[in-house]
């Protein structure tokens, strides 16, 4: 199966190239850029030297549709909503890594992203690509809205509770991310001297992933409350930890909660449940497509604590995108993705 990448010079695009290089059924046909056409991708990323010697090409959907079966859009928010209709008309499948196609309510997109939303036709035909929980729809989709990094960690961590408790009183998601989550372009927010030895909260009550998480938990259980979500930037390159506190409508136990997770993720190759009383850290998933989860119940406060970790560029972006491609084309779900994490 031949694939192209738009936004190949970004971190998500580069991670796609790395994964596809180890895939038995996907082959990289072409890489595309809006600003570096004619340049070799290995000039931009010397770690690809002598291995990936593709030249960056212009973004020409008609040309791409002649040679590729699938295009990954690893572009900033606001771009894929314009490109996707061309690919849709040309019958080439699309996996969009940006936030453009995830929210079904266009007003919500405009409110949180502060941009014009994609057309209803495009958002209507996009399938939300949370691989573990939407496999059937993904396998029949032509357009995938790949989930955001924080929503992936949060939703995989919340799903068993949301689906098994009738009513949840309160959800707090306290999330931390490494700096590669902000992409490769330069900004003062990701400047070494402002990130190193620093811990910073950002987009308080305004983070664009809030409505994405709420959209999915309310689809799973209409009694789900709005969430309190906060994002923090920490001085590391990759990784997300979402620590979540959920107040349930009834008394439970750590064992009951752990059993729910065990059952929910039995046979899922990329979600690993820690043994009772043990919790994951970001290095447990570094460079891999795993989402590791630990859970416990605090009987003093009647709150369930869930810790969910992912690598933002893998399970939070390119890894899950390839997992979705595997499901779309009927390949083994794990193809190209079974590498162990890098440790330490
Ligand atoms: N980084 C992460 O952890 C995650 C990222 N995402 C999402 O994935 C997408 C890609 O992220 P990431 O790779 O980190 O971002 P980067 O900023 O690293 O890369 C984005 C790339 O998009 C290209 N681009 C910029 N403007 C345009 C344009 N007008 N038309 C076409 N291409 C353009 C640029 O390449 P060029 O100038 O060569 O065209 C750039 O290299 C984003 O939407 C991001 O929000 C989602 C989950 C996690
Ligand atoms: C560190 C950092 O800035 N992370 C980004 C991650 C968002 C992202 O990946 O964008 P989408 O909206 O396409 O999901 C943020 O928190 O906004």
Describe the protein.
The protein is of the alpha/beta class and 344 residues long. The chain is 32% helix and 22% strand. β1 (2-6), α1 (11-20) and β2 (27-32) form a beta-alpha-beta unit. α1 (11-20) packs across α12, α8 (149-164) packs parallel to α10 (209-220) and α8 (149-164) packs across α11. Bound molecules: NADPH dihydro-nicotinamide-adenine-dinucleotide phosphate and N-acetyl-L-glutamyl 5-phosphate. NADPH dihydro-nicotinamide-adenine-dinucleotide phosphate is lined by residues 6-7, 9-13, 33-36, 59, 74-77, 79, 97-98, 148-149, 180-181, 183-185, 312-313, 316-317. N-acetyl-L-glutamyl 5-phosphate is lined by residues 77, 98-99, 148-149, 177, 181-182, 208, 231, 233.
Topology:
Blueprint: E1 2-6, H1 11-20, E2 27-32, H2 41-44, E3 56-57, H3 61-67, E4 70-73, H4 80-89, E5 93-96, H5 106-113, H6 120-125, E6 126-128, H7 135-139, E7 143-145, H8 149-164, E8 168-177, H9 192-195, E9 200-202, H10 209-220, E10 228-233, E11 240-248, H11 254-265, E12 271-273, E13 291-298, E14 303-310, H12 314-329
Parallel strand pairs: 1-2, 1-4, 2-3, 4-5, 5-7, 6-7, 8-10, 12-13
Antiparallel strand pairs: 8-11, 9-10, 11-14, 13-14
NADPH dihydro-nicotinamide-adenine-dinucleotide phosphate (NDP) binds at residues 6-7, 9-13, 33-36, 59, 74-77, 79, 97-98, 148-149, 180-181, 183-185, 312-313, 316-317.
What overall geometry do the principal axes of the alpha carbons give? globular
Report the end-to-end length measured between terminal Cα atoms: 35 Å
Rg over C-alpha atoms, rounded to the nearest angstrom? 20 Å
Major β-sheet profile: 7 strands, parallel
SS strand fraction: 15-25%
- Tally of individual domains: 2
CATH level-four homologous superfamily name of the largest domain: Dihydrodipicolinate Reductase, domain 2
CATH level 1 class label of the largest domain: Alpha Beta
